[in-house]
Amino acid sequence: MSFVDDLREKAAKKMKTIVLPEAADERMLKAAGQICANGIASIILLGNAETISENLGTLGLSTENLTVIDPELSTYRLEFSRHYFESRKHKGMTESEAEKIMGDPLFFGAMLVQKGMADGMVAGAVNSTGNVLRAGFQIVGTAAGSNIVSSCFVMVKPEWEFGENGMIVFGDCAVNPQPNAEQLAEIAIDTASTARALCGFEPKVAMLSYSTLGSGSGDDVDKVIEATRLVKEKAPNLMVDGPLQLDAALVPSVGSSKAPDSPVAGQANVVIFPDLDAGNIGYKLVQRLANAEAVGPVLQGMAKGVNDLSRGCSADDIVNVVAITALQCK
Questions:
Q1: In terms of domains, do 156 and 193 share one?
Q2: How far apart are CA 10 and CA 17, in angstroms?
Q3: CA distance 12 to 8
Q4: Which DSSP string corresponds to 172-202?
Q5: What are phi and psi of 204, to 5 degrees?
Q6: Which of 40, 115, 251, 293 has its CA 20 to 30 A from that of 330?
Q7: How many domains does the structure of the chain reveal?
Q8: Does residue 295 belong to any structural domain of this protein?
Q9: Are residues 28 and 47 in the same domain?
Q10: pLDDT 10s per residue in the chain (330 long)?
Q11: How many CA atoms lie within 13 Å of 41's alpha carbon, on the beta-carbon side?
């Protein structure tokens, strides 16, 4: 069974309810139809009920097993507005502003999750990452003990000899532009936990840099050195090493040459990029040039399951992220 098939099968056993607030997008509707037809999750679509029904019909999809809620007309809107106003009035929020904001499907969807009326939310096919995260932060919030929200992708290519079982987990590729050493350490620990939960392997984490264990110097290298030290301090049982260049992290012959005493070099299955430039460019290079499947992004550190999509996503990508979100839900 492939990684994606395994994700979907596991999600089907949990049958969580996931809200899709971007129901005007054709990809979302196709994904919703596929999810419901295969019993992966229960779906709530947000938008005008008549328009959604017409668009589903045009695509040859049924409204069976789909719930449609129009935030503009919903009886929940007043309750949600009051809750949002109370939580944000200390920041200058007014009641009229709160009511207007609750007409936005992103914020309405996040409130469905916060209130327990949905288990998770997936968006970002149309909205920017910033907008998705803003709704998530303000309404759902971060997990207890978490100081940063980050992301990872599971990069999948069955014939790979690198990584583990045709998989390598990349973090952070979507959220934090310039994490400091403390943040980078938390990203590494959270990404390792996600890798363990979704991929089923014991993580071997490489903290990436242009330097391998002192071959180069500079502030950027120092940041990775400090982040690696903090990971070892905070998660002493986690197998981690760095700084490592990418080839030293993944290629056994290079790893044994450049870092012969490293417990990770040449066998990493989780790689942590030093900043968002490197992470975002890196995953897209592998996705496009190696024709690898990029499953994600998976958000880490949220109190409940909220995940952001790439605006270049396909309907299949949405199905996969919905399955991941379902698996993140308690």
A1: yes
A2: 14
A3: 6
A4: -SSS-SS--HHHHHHHHHHHHHHHHHHH-S-
A5: -125, 105
A6: 293
A7: 2
A8: no
A9: yes
A10: 689 899 999 999 999 999 999 999 999 999 999 999 999 999 999 999 999 999 999 999 877 778 999 999 999 999 999 999 999 999 998 999 999 999 999 999 999 999 999 999 999 999 998 899 999 999 999 888 888 999 999 999 999 999 999 999 999 998 999 999 999 999 999 999 999 989 989 999 999 999 998 777 788 999 999 999 999 999 999 999 999 999 999 999 999 999 999 999 999 999 999 999 999 999 999 999 999 999 888 999 899 999 999 888 999 999 999 999 999 887
A11: 31
236, 316: one domain: no
Side-chain half-sphere exposure of 62, counting CA atoms within 13 A: 7
Q: Please tell me whether residues 201 and 114 are part of one structural domain.
A: no
pTM of the predicted structure, to 2 decimals:
0.84
Domain containing residue 284 = 150-289
The answer on 172 and 71 residing in a single domain is no
Identify whether 121 is part of a domain.
yes
